[in-house]
What we know:
By secondary structure, the chain is α/β, with parallel strands linked by helices. 42% of the residues lie in helices and 18% in strands. It has helices at 41-54, 70-79, 101-106, 123-126, 142-154, 180-185, 191-197, 214-226, 232-235, 238-246, 252-266, 280-283, 287-290, 298-316, 321-328, 332-341, and strands at 2-10, 17-28, 33-38, 60-63, 88-92, 107-108, 120-121, 131-135, 156-158, 165-167, 171-176, 200-203. α1 (41-54) crosses α2 (70-79), α5 (142-154) crosses α7 and α8 crosses α11 (252-266).
Amino acid sequence: YTVEAEFKIMESMQAVKIHKTSMAVISKNEYNDTVLVSYSNSMKSLLSVIEIAASSEEPVLVTGETGTGKELIARIIHERSERSGAPFVPVNCAAIPEQLFEREFFGNVKGAYTGADTSVHGLSEQADGGTLFLDEIGEMPPLLQAKLLRLLQDGSYHRLGDPALRRVNIRVIAATNADINAMIISKQFRQDCYYRLKTLEINIPPLRDRKEDIEPLAALFIHKMLGHHYNPRDIFDEELCELYYKYPWPGNVRELESITRRLALYTKHHPRATIEMLPKDMQQYSNRRMLVGGSLSLSSYLEAAEKERILQALISSGGNRTSASNNLGISRKALYAKMRRLLLEFPL
């Protein structure tokens, strides 16, 4: 369903409440309602692509940085498609050991290997009639990518230990934050599988490139925590509201939700949320801390900015140091040197 979701937003310099309208897509699933807030033009454009994907049976590749909401997009496509009444089976490819991939995806027959006392249905069979969502598709071993390609082409596969060809009727949606083109060059990902997956490609922009969505999203998370009578400018002081727009949000919507829920919890015991309630690395973006004579010197500010930019590059590349160094315009060796100097560890 598509609805008009209204969020009360106070003007920065006036104590007058105004209303701005934000388009939201709501999709039912077995856990909760999933909501996509799309006030920015880039996200509104994304909605039309989602509609096209939902009306199609073609594979979809969802790309974007960590925390942008790739699984949420996949769920909305599924729920708005003709397969909505069938299973949506999410799979984190990064969490499956390579030696277990084939068994997990395609199942096995009794006696296929030592200890296989019963036949097991694979994830592909569990998703029959519905959608198989492959998160972190870049982590799938190349050998299995070839078998996935066959599944994409005609729905056929073999259970482990079974020569009989089986078929399923599934729709595949894949997601990644990795640079698949770079992985193709390094022979880590099959080019033919990539082209089949990206028949329809949806790229979710990072939160720092759609700042219009920050306040409506924060309002949504506050509504969940405190109820619909509260909004960001009701419980955040002015300096904190300004900081929300200056901060680059390297963890994207996931980080925004975590921080906003943290502040909402604080306001249950304090009149208003302030920057002092934020993590130290966020506080450095406050105007007060950037003033001459403030607690953050020029050298400290430059170091913090450098650290933040490197962190963003690492997050965008999914932790791939080569891709991150290329994005930063420095060598891999220089990247490691900077990470050591800045005491930056990744994953965090």
